[in-house]
């Protein structure tokens, strides 16, 4: 549960820090990899 909360906070931070589509796409790829591992 705590990991999910931290993950959501990380998403918010990335959205705020870099609203660029390139960075978002990179994060989207990374999130997919994490989901596959879990």
From TrEMBL:
It comes from the Archaea. This is Uncharacterized protein. It comes from Methanosarcina mazei Tuc01. The lineage of its organism: Archaea, Methanobacteriati, Methanobacteriota, Stenosarchaea group, Methanomicrobia.
């Amino acid at each position: 549960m705590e990991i999910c909360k931290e993950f959501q906070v990380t998403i918010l931070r990335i959205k705020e820090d870099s609203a660029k589509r390139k960075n978002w796409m990179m994060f989207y790829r990374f999130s997919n990899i994490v989901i596959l591992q879990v």
